[in-house]
Amino acid sequence: MAVSRTLTFAEPDQYQSALRAVEADVIVNGKGRFHARVTHVNFSRLWLQSGSDNLPRIARLANDPSRAPIFLQTHSSQAPIIIAGKEISPSDLIVFRNGETHINRSMGPSSWGAMSLDPEALADAGRVIAGRELTFPPNTYSTRPPPELLSRLTYLHRRAIQLAAEGPERLGHPEVARSLEHDMVHLMVRCIIDQSGSDDRIGNFRHKAIIQKFEELAVANPHRPLHLAEVCAATGATERTLLRCCHEQFGMGPIRFLWLRRMNMVRAALARADASSSNVTKVATAHGFWELGRFAVSYRRIYGESPSRTLARTSACNPLPSHPVRFPGGHFPELAGTA
Prior knowledge:
By secondary structure, the chain is an alpha+beta fold. It has two domains: 3-201, Jelly Rolls, CATH 2.60.120.10; 205-315, Homeodomain-like (Arc Repressor Mutant, subunit A). 43% of the residues lie in helices and 21% in strands. The protein is built from twelve helices and 13 strands. An eight-stranded antiparallel β-sheet has the order 1-3-4-11-6-9-12-13, sandwiched between helices. A hairpin with a 4-residue loop joins strand 3 and strand 4 (47-53). Helix 2 (119-130) crosses helix 5 (174-193) and helix 6 (205-220) crosses helix 8 (239-250). It is globular, with a radius of gyration of 21 Å. The two termini are 27 Å apart.
């Protein structure tokens, strides 16, 4: 049988905590109130995941090395998704190397799907379907399978997610689950091994190394505004190269990204804070914002409400989880703060 659940979210912290087989850090880069939805389906060995979010966002994703995942777009008419600087077509399938860490950026509302097997199941499926073991590729790459294969895989993925939301009792029937899992694993392997389309390695190794140093600097200084010269020195990159890398990965320059990251951290902190013991000034200054008038104007422009409104609204609700929630095995623990 299959185990499934669907969750909806009003905050990026909730959303990133619910993503399976990955450690995620989601930064919203669009104006308005955020909302997102995630559905998980666990078959015997195959895991499915489907998500949608309504605003442009930048997600740093570190894949679980115990799973072999692929990524696909589930709707053809949506804003572009960019992975490691490469715009992904709905006709593309992304196959990840073991434990890949990458930037997944959307330009607007997006819907996406993922599938993963454990390495042993991938090897077994390769032997049966392709006559050879399949392993993690040495590099993450995009491939364009025959349209009929990808179309069928996308349809079955979408159908399984739909059943999880609308008819979980049917998805829980052993024969239905076994048939769906068999067909999807078969199509997944066929899409990976078919070489009729072009295969392109994703990511420039030098640029990736610079971005890694940049992210390490950001993590080490979460609340302190950083200057461009300081960032260049820490990453070992010239200003021109750093700007190019950041625009390629994040769609913006390094200082703007660091500022936006701190704004998202302020919103998450306000959403967790208790209005009886905290206030906007305390939270904002703790994250390096000292011009409080400008901060409040920028906050309202991005999130569609004042910071004081966020504090007052979320204090009346369950607090967000302060640490990512892990989902081992085939069961799903309750997630605090889901809408």
